[in-house]
Amino acid sequence: MAAAESYPDDIRYHEEHDWARVEGDEAVLGITWFATDSLGELVHFEPPEAGSDVTKDQSYGEVESVKAVSDVIAPLSGEVLEVNQQVVDAPETVNDDPYGNGWLIRIRLSSPDEVGALLDADAYRQLLAEQ
Amino acid sequence: MPETLQHTPLHDRHVELGARMVPFAGWEMPVQYEGVIPEHRAVRTDAGVFDVSHMGELEVEGPQARELLQGLLSNDLDRLAVGEAQYTLLTNGEGGIVDDLIVYRLGECLYLLVVNAANREADHAWLKEREIRGSDVRDVSEDCALLAVQGPRAIERLGLPPAEPFTFAETFLDGVEVMVNRTGYTGEDGCELLCMSDDAVRLWDAVLARGVVPCGLGARDTLRLEVCYPLHGNDIGPDTDAISAGLGWVCALDKEFEGADVLRRVKADGPDRRLVAFVMEEKAIPRQGMTIEGGGEVTSGSHSPMLEVGIGMGYVPTAEARPGTELTIDVRGRPRGARIVTKPIYKRYDNGKE
To answer: Which of A3, A4, A122, B100 is the most exposed place for a label (fewest CB within 10 A)?
Structure first.
């Protein structure tokens, strides 16, 4: 069951419709409800390898629905510590719970000061309203 | 300058239902309502309806109509009685496929051709240029709306009597005069309902009132791919021949039609490549245009909602075209394994039926 539209206040957002939940020197990354709604039900997640580096504003993986493929953009830079295997096995988890069980990867931040450039929930909602 | 998209008579109904509308072959069409996967499953397990009013309808009439069509269409028109339909190809002189279509014999001297939306004008021009005395070709698409009602419960939900595949009959459905064609593009039982454009909204409402699920072009594509029906423009086209595409069964090579000599030669020599169906062995979704290692190309690819795996069709060298053969597909730079399977990819017993 696809989740209802929401943009929680406890996470930060990237304008390419990705989010980051910063926890100390680590962050959990995912895609926003808006991204899941645009794509439709996800049927494939192509993850990065654990131990590889992701770079802010660059693609670190792909998500696919029946009809479309989309790059997933990193909101922050760092080293991949963990890939969410539940999403690899059941990609629709992202549609059901984009900010919870549908997280994509966990990274160790290489440039923690990048966090300041991300949007808060209000700013992200504003961005969506303008589109 | 962007082209103005055409609307079917049901455009407002689609928007009211919350459909996601996309451009397709010059038309603004619903790609999905609730979602491709639930719509696909509705057709495999119950019944779904597709607005396919963008497709073209051409009438060919006259004492020489049969003569004209028998020389242009690949299948044998003489096997078609009034009240019957036939899948056939409009071929060019090189044996290529101008279009694939269904021809209905409406009367002794009257045929209806239902053609792909993108090819409607080209088909009409092709036939018009070759018209002979005693045959009249007309594009009647503007007057017609077409709804495909497909699925194991489609006929029951519409309250229609049983009938053989590839036959048609005229009847009334909730007061709307319709031609019920026992044809489709999903591999399921069902029909295609042809009515006058002015009646399309009433017919659509009558079909939905019987519990049939509205479905978009997204599900139409995954349904036809699971059962390996070729899509003109993807899997077949003016530069591909029927023999390589596995459509030799709709080519009556014992008669004369455009390109028949070329097709006879390809059949005798054996084609260099064949259109095969495959299933991914590794997690990945094949897409049109991807390269198959060893000189092949994916012509259609998607996720199979019933098998929950990537599936596709593509051309490979004949020596590598046997079922069971392993393929490697270049998925945006990543080599991913697949295996050739016998067509269709999805068989009804996969769903616990039959």
So the answer is: A4
